[in-house]
């Protein structure tokens, strides 16, 4: 979503404080997108079998090509980081008390069941409302660029910086076919831009005065 922006580090810290206090499902939903960079539709496509094997959390979560944008390509794998591990552990414990955890059960369930009593998956619109409410509680002002792609862009920016600003690495991380698409995810930081522009000046910085040696 081209109009969305990444969160600033300060906004991330505020959001984290809010998210850790949310109910298990909502906490895990937000944390999952935040720490995997999946699109919201990809997050909602996950099943219990996507995160749990033989009663243990998987080390990596994969989204199959049929659930990726465009419906083609290769399965996108992302490691399950400690923050997400904690959220999933809490949520699956909560979920186990309400449903039998079969592999094909949607991971993120609506609070409403289907007419026949079966589990109903959370909708994209419901996920959007959950995310925006968390933003509101974290004091993140909606400047018209807050949407369900915000956390994916935040993940992309942090991955780009951690990967020594390697666009080819970012392209692979985002599962893009063209590096030019990945480049759109990177916004120039205003403070970094200002520092870079100031660095071209020829004026030398004044030297610090030398300390006079004190005779013994």
Give an account of the 3D structure.
The longest helix has 15 residues, at 82-96. The N and C termini lie far apart (70 Å). The protein has one domain (9-191): Intergrase catalytic core (hpI Integrase, Chain A, Orthogonal Bundle). It contains ten helices and four strands. It has helices at residues 9-19, 24-36, 40-44, 48-51, 82-96, 124-137, 150-162, 167-174, 179-183, 190-198, and strands at 52-53, 56-57, 60-63, 76-79. It has 216 residues and is mostly helical. The mean pLDDT is 87. The strands form two sheets. Strands 1-2 form a two-stranded antiparallel sheet. Strands 3-4 form a two-stranded antiparallel ribbon. Helix 2 (24-36) runs antiparallel to helix 5 and helix 2 (24-36) crosses helix 7.
Give the tags.
216 residues, mainly alpha, hpI Integrase, Chain A, two-stranded antiparallel sheet, 4 strands
